């Protein structure tokens, strides 16, 4: 039975190395996971079963007491978060040009206007100066994306938001488990610094389920109540609908998976950081690439290990590595302002050179919790041999 339940992971298996080894991770906690999934199958409460609230409570504790509202996926989390802010059609929402499409997609879907701005060339996160320069009298919110595993400069962003009376929604799909340190030494979990945080539990994420899943996170009691209503058809009481809502929930099986994996999240992060440190050491003499930079204000949980390849050789390196059996990925080959769906005269191609340069030069290497020393050595040797 469980071979069938977990057969999804096999499609990621190829001969040799993988970008993400979900089945290897499952095998390490197989007995716990099988028990958790079988428990759901036995009690049969597949929607809103007890594991859903148990997971929400456990993640809340992990996030230092913030409210956690589970939902169906990370994109829904972003949509619900913005719906909770009661923004109006035409309101402007500022976000990064260099990110996955879901961030801008939700803004546009709600009839809001996405304003795409430049990112920091070292950290790949939104540039606070570019952000402030983009603010108009129609700006109502900022969506910083904590790309590849570390936080945006949230202290600067929250200062700008306070100055202009703007909401901040953190897109924390890739950095759950990271911590932000303010200049006064205070630390907060990434995703709890802004007015609302959102995250994804897509299987390949640092905390991933075995299907789709997401959550909205906030430290504001009133926003939490509104978010809960919106995620549940706009109702507090069944059949009494106070606001327009959606139907977005984390199913019980996925909650059981996440509840089982959450105690291992810090261990998973440490494993990824170990791989990243080994890569950094192995590549330190190479002048043709730039290793990921770590900001002083954020820990890096390395959802991705993303190089910048100089001299226009990114695609050549990718082809070489794949020929050596080393998987690699480009996140993301086209910045949002270069996408037909989000093209605008306000930010034509050529207007955001950092994002465009990154799109043409970044390459992500394998990094996951199950990588062996031999795997790491093979990646390092393959990259070095190319140059």
Describe the structure.
The chain has 387 residues and is of the alpha/beta class. It has two domains: 229 residues, 3-Layer(aba) Sandwich (Aspartate Aminotransferase, domain 2), CATH 3.40.640; 123 residues, Alpha-Beta Complex (Aspartate Aminotransferase, domain 1), CATH 3.90.1150. It contains 14 helices and 14 strands. The strands form four sheets. The protein has a seven-stranded mixed beta sheet with strand order 1-9-8-5-4-2-3, sandwiched between helices. Strand 6 and strand 7 form a beta hairpin. The longest helix is centred in the C-terminal third of the chain and has 19 residues. The N terminus is likely disordered.
Uncertain segments: 1-15
Distance between the termini: 48 Å
Q: Assign the CATH superfamily of the largest domain.
A: Type I PLP-dependent aspartate aminotransferase-like (Major domain)
Helices and strands, in N-to-C order? HHHHEHEHEHEHEEEEEHEEHHEEHHEH
Outline type: globular
How are the strands of the biggest sheet laid out side by side?
Answer: 1-9-8-5-4-2-3
**Number of DSSP strands?**
14
| Helix percentage | 25-40%
**Number of spatially distinct domains:** 2
Which structural class do the helices and strands define?
alpha/beta
* Average predicted local confidence, pLDDT: 95
What is the makeup of the main sheet? 7 strands, mixed
What share of residues are in beta strands? 5-15%
């Amino acid at each position: 039975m469980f071979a069938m339940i977990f057969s999804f992971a096999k499609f990621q298996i190829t001969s040799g190395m993988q970008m993400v080894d979900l089945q290897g991770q499952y095998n390490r906690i197989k007995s716990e996971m099988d028990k958790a999934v079988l428990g759901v199958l036995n009690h049969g409460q597949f929607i809103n079963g007890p594991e859903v609230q148990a997971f929400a409570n456990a993640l809340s504790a992990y996030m230092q007491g913030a409210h956690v509202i589970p939902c169906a996926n990370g994109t829904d989390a972003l949509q619900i978060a913005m719906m909770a802010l009661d923004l109006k059609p035409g309101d402007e929402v500022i976000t990064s040009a260099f990110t996955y499409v879901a961030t801008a997609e939700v803004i546009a879907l709600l009839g809001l206007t996405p304003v795409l701005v430049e990112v920091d060339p070292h950290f790949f996160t939104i540039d606070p100066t570019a952000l402030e320069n983009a603010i108009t009298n129609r700006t109502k919110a900022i969506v910083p994306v904590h790309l590849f595993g570390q936080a945006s400069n949230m202290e600067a962003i929250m200062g700008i938001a306070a100055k202009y009376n703007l909401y901040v929604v953190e897109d924390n799909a890739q950095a759950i488990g990271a911590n932000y340190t303010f200049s006064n030494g205070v630390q907060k979990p990434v995703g709890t610094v802004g007015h609302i945080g959102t995250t994804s539990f897509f299987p390949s994420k640092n905390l991933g389920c075995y299907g789709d899943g997401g959550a909205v996170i906030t430290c504001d009691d009133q926003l939490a109540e509104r978010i809960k209503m919106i995620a549940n058809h706009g109702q507090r009481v069944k059949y009494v609908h106070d606001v327009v809502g959606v139907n977005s929930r984390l199913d019980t099986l996925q909650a059981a998976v996440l509840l089982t994996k959450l105690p291992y999240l810090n261990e998973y992060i440490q494993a990824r950081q170990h791989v990243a440190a080994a890569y950094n050491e192995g590549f330190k003499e190479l002048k043709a690439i730039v290793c990921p930079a770590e900001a002083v204000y954020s820990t890096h949980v390395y959802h991705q290990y993303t190089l910048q390849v100089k001299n226009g050789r990114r695609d050549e390196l990718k082809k070489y590595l794949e020929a050596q059996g080393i998987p690699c990925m480009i996140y993301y080959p086209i910045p949002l302002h270069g996408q037909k769906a989000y093209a605008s005269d306000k930010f034509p191609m050529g207007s955001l050179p950092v994002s465009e340069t990154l799109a043409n030069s970044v390459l992500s290497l394998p990094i996951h919790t199950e990588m062996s020393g031999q795997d790491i050595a093979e990646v390092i040797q393959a990259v070095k041999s190319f140059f």
